[in-house]
Amino acid sequence: MADPMNVLLIARVSRDNTGEERSVDEQLDELHGWARREGWHVAHVIRELGSASRFSQRRSRNEFAEAVRWIESGRIDAVLMWEASRITRDLGVYAELRETCAKHNVKYGYDGTLYDFAERDDRFRTGIDALLAEDEVARTSERVRRAVAANVSAGRPNGKSTWGYRRLYDPETKALREIVPDPVSGPLVREAFRRFLGGETMHAIATDWNRRGIPPRRPKRSDRDPAPWGSYAIKEILRNPTYAALRTHNGVIAGAAIWPALIQQSAFDDVQKRLADPSRRRDPSAWGPGSLLTGTARCGEDGCRARMRMGYNNASYRAATGTARRQYRTYVCANGAHVAVKQVWADAVVVEHVLSRIEHPDFLAALHDIEDAGAERRRELMAEIDDHMTWLSRVRERAEAERNVDLLFEIESSVRPKINKAQVELKRLTSASPAVVALASESDVRSAWTTLDLPAQREIIRTLIDVTFHRARQKGARGVLSTLDRTEIRWRVDG
Ligand SMILES: [Zn+2]
User: Fold this and answer.
1) Which among 133, 75, 70 is positioned nearest to 97, based on CA atoms?
2) 299 C-alpha vs ligand 1 centroid, how far in Å?
């Protein structure tokens, strides 16, 4: 059996284009998880704390040089990072990294996909992503500058106390006397756990907290930042063992803590299990709000079938695709410049399709049959997946303890297909989701639709139909009618 691949992980401070922050720890956690799932060995980690922009190039240059040394060393087979913009937003530097990887036969992975620069398509894809990322640099730089200024003027304390708790000090000796739940933020921590366990998405919780004006855990980054809470902030809370009164050391739980628990350990463990559920991770909506069809609609170009992502039709995008249109939001093929459709029209076409079908009186009856027939089986499948996953993690522990990689690979290769098969069936059965049934039961389906939040709307669209966008027949053909013509919709539920 071949040795496992050796990988280099790179994480850095950045903000994605939904305005949500992935901390360096968050990125590394995801990258470690990716490597673990694939059975790759993490040879080295570069925690690149500097900005990737040309405005602070000197600072990031050292870490970049370190990355290049590792690629050249022959000791690693692949570089993994969160996304293209994590390694650099400067195309010159990017090209240097790409050349180095290609020269030393090192693969390059981001967004959960490993690219081989020897393949022409992979080179094209990563090049386009870097072009798209470049335009954000100026805005990011401005945000960072403002954030630093805000923190300095706010006299920010050393932020060692965990949100949800309060530290009581002895008034004379100034020594830490006790850590107690904070009367304001403590109940919010409990609320986040309770609602997530109740089936709400992290995005829904964040949206609600923003609506209620709940102050952020840390000082606001800028006045232009209207929404302090995002899915990732909620996720950080849900993953923090501190709230179950567990002490951690280097990210590993090290024992009971002196402070009181805000959440029972059994509930905390349940939440961790859900967060680690691979079927949830694969759900594109778990990655943030996005738009109605990002990550679900597909490219209709022959042999492509890649999912659509947001393109902003900015200067870099126009240069890459050779168009000169004004700036608006478009869905673009994640695999290249095959297909682009204007978002407002695409959304309108798809929503109209779905709502006019749901409104039909026969629809609800057909849906109920599916719901009844599928519910039991869905529970069985989820239990089956859970069993397989538990078994795998036990084997993984044993293989690690015995340094027996063959054992791990052998078990993985027999269990993985079973998990995948169960997930495929589960996904098919999930076509009649409770959200769809609830919407179809409304007397006024259209007005009910407008009150749903984006994750709920995405869930409904995703479970009911597969959307494919085709290239425009004539160059420059646009408008909602052209979009209608280019949109192929397949129903997954016979209603
Ligand atoms: Zn495509």
Assistant:
1) 70
2) 4
Identify whether the C-beta of residue 354 lies closer than 8 Å to the C-beta of residue 415: no
- The torsion angles phi and psi of 311, rounded to 5 degrees, stand at -120, 145
The 10s digit of each residue's pLDDT in 305-362 is 888 887 755 554 455 555 554 456 788 888 877 888 888 888 888 888 888 888 776 6
Residues 30 and 112: their CA atoms lie apart, in Å, by 9
Instruction: Determine the distance separating the centroid of ligand 1 and the alpha carbon of 333, expressed in angstroms.
Output: 5
306 C-alpha to center of ligand 1: Å?
5
Report yes or no: 367 and 437 within 8 Å, Cβ to Cβ: yes
Are the beta carbons of 82 and 27 closer than 8 angstroms? yes
| CA of residue 308 to ligand 1 center, whole Å | 8
| Cβ neighbours around 483 below 10 Å, total | 22
The pLDDT tens digits of the residues spanning 204-219 come to 899 899 888 888 887 6
How many A from CA of 451 to the centre of ligand 1? 33
> Is residue 250 scored above 90 in pLDDT?
no
User: Which residue, among 87, 93, 101, has the nearest Cα to 10 in the 3D structure?
Assistant: 87
Q: How far is the CA of 488 from the centre of ligand 1 (A)?
A: 14
359: which residues sit within 8 A by CB, 6+ positions away? 445, 446
- What pLDDT, on a 0 to 100 scale, did the predictor assign at position 281? 45
What's the CA-to-centroid distance between 373 and ligand 1, angstroms? 36
85 Cα: distance to centroid of ligand 1 (angstroms) = 21
Q: Compute the distance from residue 471 Cα to the ligand 1 centre, in Å.
A: 9
Gap between the terminal Cα atoms of the chain: 50
Amino acid at 98: R
The larger pLDDT score, comparing residue 358 to residue 259, is at 358
B/e letters for 398-412, b = 16+ CB within 10 Å, e = fewer, are ebeeeeebeebeebb
User: What's the pTM value of the predicted model, to 2 decimals?
Assistant: 0.34
Instruction: Report how far ligand 1's centroid is from the alpha carbon of 40 (Å).
Output: 29
